[in-house]
Amino acid sequence: MTCLPEIAPGQKKLGLVIDLDTCVGCQACATNCKEWNASGHSAPLPDLKPYSAGAEGVWFNRVHSFEAGEGEAGRTVHFPRSCLHCETPACVTVCPTGASYKRAEDGIVLVNADTCIGCGLCAWACPYGAREMDEDEGVMKKCTLCIDRIYNETIPEAQRQPACVLTCPTKARHFGDLGDPDSAVSRLVAERGGQPLMPELGYSPVNRYLPPRKRATPPAKPVEDAPTHMDVKNPLLRWVDRVLTRMPAMESERQV
Amino acid sequence: MNPAPSIVFFTTASGAGYGLLFWLGLLRPLGLVPGGQGFGLTALVLALVLVTAGLLSSTAHLGNPRRAWRAVSQWRSSWLSREGVAALATYVPAGIFGLALLTDRPGLAAAMGLLAAAGAVATVYCTGMIYASLPPIRQWHHPLVVPGYLVLSAFSGAALLAMLCGFWGDGVVAVVLALLGGGAALVLKRAYWRAIDAAPPEATVESATSLGFIGKVRPLEPPHTETNYLLREMGFRIARKHAARLRHITLLAGFAAPMLLALLALLLGGGLAAAALTLAAVLALGGLLVERWLMFAEATHTVTLYYSGN
Ligand code: SF4
Ligand code: SF4
Ligand code: SF4
């Protein structure tokens, strides 16, 4: 059913919080996502021409790098991009078959590969480029928030997290219930001012991005060692140096 | 957006077919087109052939065409589903219309013709809404897109009707409609192009990354070195180089030339008129193919913000 579930206050909204301050763009999350999901709920994630020029394939997570700002204020920011499990996503409502749906119980947006006709309309409707067509099977694929890990009772509890979150070497990725204001992820978003992406399009994305922290104030410029008189080898110049040192300095020099 | 040939052909052909069905169903009861059985059946068959060819070609775009029947299930939320429902539903009165013509029952023919005309409008409206309800593509998420689909369908349908009327030697009303349709299409497309050229993009790479608070944002490294589905489907850029020229071709060859030929036909009459109107219909359909191709090729999707910054 492609009508969206009603939004009740306090409803569970599972999602990711991604820290743009600490992400180092290592691609581990994208790689581990591909690894897990190639045999998970939406398997396979096909690759076209995997061993030759023009290799490409279906990935649920893509890590971009951006430059923001100019000069000293400028920064390089690594930016993982995946489904934001939006609250009011047109990717679900445009689907003609009901294959694209949003779960009422936790807000995860999924595709039913058995009923998808591969029309591609949902990929057009996603502003974030989070859906990629499996051109072998002719069905749409997307991030499942590792639905086959987070509820999986056959793996240790500590591992019931999305693959990307578990693998991140800098702990830049967090998973939890963003509908619960007291959850760890919600508190993190509140503390760090987590941001939604393109809120102006009205999709109400659930995932949040933590902004890069402000730089610490830069230290004062390094000062050169003041030369002593004994550094001047020539006796005549040493005498000139002494005389000059005793003379009152001019206004502009005093500040140096 | 990638102008997939199957969709460009589909919206042009079935748009013209529904336009023809609309005018035939509407004008026949009013006695404004030739009333004989031959004319009615020829026009109806031409309309349904175009509609059906278009619909079949649109299923070629699907990854799983054998499941296409599922597409009519979500009419509550999806305009694509509604289009499918409207298209299928329109076949019912159109079919009975044809039977009534064959068995010479004028009352039934008139009623079913009018119903089919309503179905044609509803279907083309749904087609327009599929595009207009996609916020990531600002050139489609625009109030002039649905009127554009309706007017162009009415224009191309009128051009086809005028052509047929030309062969039956009784074309004044249809020719006038084609002239009006061409004029409306010309005005509307120009207004649309002016509007999308002037409108600032709603989303920017700054809002797409939430990094605008630092300053201007530029893509530094893409996530992959080769292309992918997103870039092939949504990052199509070839047309923008030729956009201005293709717009002129649409306006001149697609709208202005058919209008001139229609005027000429009014003056000439007879066999020459039929020839001029045929050429007008061919030009109109050709112009619409260019227009529909541009409609895709000029459309930009917000996902390209992540890759190219604009
Ligand atoms: S990010 Fe895209 S695919 Fe995911 S829910 Fe939002 S609109 Fe749908
Ligand atoms: S590609 Fe599949 S999931 Fe997407 S809109 Fe079409 S039928 Fe629905
Ligand atoms: S694994 Fe962590 S640090 Fe590496 S790209 Fe992903 S989010 Fe960034």
TrEMBL record, chain A:
InterPro entries: 4Fe4S_Fe-S-bd (IPR017896), 4Fe4S_Fe_S_CS (IPR017900), ET_IronSulfur_Cluster-Binding (IPR050954). Residues 208-228 are annotated as: Disordered. It comes from the Bacteria. PROSITE patterns: 4FE4S_FER_1, 4FE4S_FER_2. One of its GO terms (molecular function) is 4 iron, 4 sulfur cluster binding. Residues 14-44, 74-105, 107-136 form the 4Fe-4S ferredoxin-type domain. This is 4Fe-4S dicluster domain-containing protein. CDD domains: PsrB. Keywords: 4Fe-4S, Iron, Iron-sulfur, Metal-binding.
TrEMBL record, chain B:
The chain crosses the membrane at residues 7-26, 38-63, 84-102, 108-132, 144-165, 171-188, 246-266, 272-290. One of its GO terms (biological process) is anaerobic electron transport chain. Coiled coil: none annotated. InterPro entries: DmsC. Keywords: Membrane, Transmembrane, Transmembrane helix. It holds the Pfam family DmsC. GO terms for cellular component: dimethyl sulfoxide reductase complex; plasma membrane. It comes from the Bacteria. GO terms for molecular function: dimethyl sulfoxide reductase activity. This is Dimethyl sulfoxide reductase anchor subunit. It comes from Siccirubricoccus deserti.
